[in-house]
Amino acid sequence: MENSWVSLLPFIVVIPIAVLTKQVLPGLFAGLILGSYLIQPDLFGGIMTLISYLINNLVKPNNIRIIIFLYVFAGLINLTRMTGGIKGFVDLVSRKVKTKRSAMLLIWLSTIGTFNNPNFRIVTVAPIMKLLKRRLPISTQKIGFMIEVTSNPVVALVPVATAFVGYMVSLIGTALQQVGINESPYSIFIKSIPFNFFSLIIIGIGIYYSFFREMSNHMQGDMVEDSDAQREEEELQKCIQAYEKETPSKPLNLLLPLGIILVMTLYLSWRNGQAQAISFFDAFVKADALGVMLEALFVTLFLSLLLFLLQRFSVAKIVTHFIDGGNELVSVILMLALVWALSAVSEDLGFSTYIASNLIGWIPETFIAPVVFILGSFIAYFIGSSWGTWGLLMPLAVTLAHQTGSNIILVIGAVFASGTFGAFASPLSDNSITLCAILDLPVMEYAHSKLKPSLIAAGITTILFGIASLFI
User: Fold this and answer.
1) What is the distance, to the nearest Å, from the Cα of residue 382 to the centroid of all Cα atoms in its chain?
2) 396 and 179 in contact (C-beta within 8 Å)?
3) Which is nearest to 139 in space by CA: 211, 87, 214?
């Protein structure tokens, strides 16, 4: 289809509908329907196109692996809950975690063992903090905000053993080849890390609100509940407390699986990449990070099942709780399927090409980096994907930088910063969707609550890119 403003329409309808309905799914579905009918404008053709985009994007290897990872990991976490791992860990840390400050410290320290993937970190830490919240006067929105601050923004800065590194380096390598630059993509990636200004600034904001100042009432998201809602919550707490009395307290049932998956991820990453690597650290770059994490997860699952069976938990109970845990993320998986399909539809309509063709010619060469960040942030907010934004924007950004003589490393940093903004701020982000599903937060309300600090960080980031463009 010829590239035109029509390619913007599917994304334009998503946010208003999501805001009006206070649900992300209707907006995504409406955008997908509109995009499908724009491609095939007849009654049954649009439906067939919609189904085709859903299926074709679901069966992509990386997307299938993400779905399996989320379902299996959620099932495993539910098993650790059922076998007393999470309760035992909460009992263990509650001796130390008695204040809001210590709870915030726990969130930050937990990045040490969960830095390799944002969703891995979210599905690991969020259930623990959800239980700790009942003992401490912290709003769920603040917990969610701090977990997200220490998820995608942190992972995007780590140069080894993450699900991002291989993908980011491959994008840089492809873009450099297109413009005839023969430098090492990994070394360029390392040099670009200090220029991911958004990650650094939002992490700084997170530290500030964690330890030095309370968030505003709007950001806290505290709402006055009526008496019926309060009674309902009290009844729910009674049920949870009754359940906890029947659950054993075995912290090793959480710590051992997490320890195994971390060690196995590091080992399998090295093992997977060492054949093509020229150094120890290069092996982590060459590894298929997502595939390795899935392998590590299944090894952990098998060993955990053996541990639980040796503790005389019944097979029927294990199977039931594993499936129940995985089913908790079915809504997340459905949202991801719609996001992937919608992104593919918009790309076929010429969304990124239309944006790019309307940029070339009016961007001052000195300000390529800030404009790339602003453009990427706009795209990332509407698609909710750091990976998608990086993939769409990297070839364009590197080409623009090369043709205008701008600093390519700075522009690459702007691409990564913009994708990080979208993954953090967008209500369509799989990180936000997963987090809200676990913490029982309304997606749109939560996204609205973190928009102000996100825009502040984005504004400072734009200024820094402008300053850096003048002096680098």
Assistant:
1) 14
2) no
3) 214
* pLDDT at position 2: 55
What is residue 238's predicted lDDT score, i.e. its pLDDT? 45
Whole-number CA gyration radius for the chain? 23
Residue 334: name the closest of 471, 404, 428 by CA.
428
Say what the pLDDT of residue 22 is.
Answer: 60
What pLDDT does residue 221 have? 47
- 8 A C-beta contact, residue 420 and residue 197: no
Cβ–Cβ < 8 Å for 14, 382: yes
Q: How far is CA 27 from its chain centroid?
A: 20
Angle (CA) 324 336 139, round 5°: 70
Angle 38-41-47 (CA atoms, 0-180°, nearest 5)? Answer: 90
Phi, psi dihedrals of residue 424, rounded to the nearest 5°: -85, -45
- Interval 133-175: pLDDT, tens: 877 878 899 999 999 999 999 999 988 767 677 678 878 887 8
Which pLDDT score, from 0 to 100, does residue 355 have? Answer: 63
Structure tokens at 187: 């070394």
Which residue matches tokens 């980031």? 461
Structure token pair of residue 362: 């009016």
pTM: 0.72
Instruction: Tell me the HSE value of 21 on the side-chain side, using a 13 A CA sphere.
Output: 14
User: In the chain, which residues have pLDDT < 50?
Assistant: 221-243
Listed residue (167, 169, 164) closest to 185, CA to CA: 169
Grouping H, G, I as helix, E, B as strand and the rest as coil, residue 41 is: coil
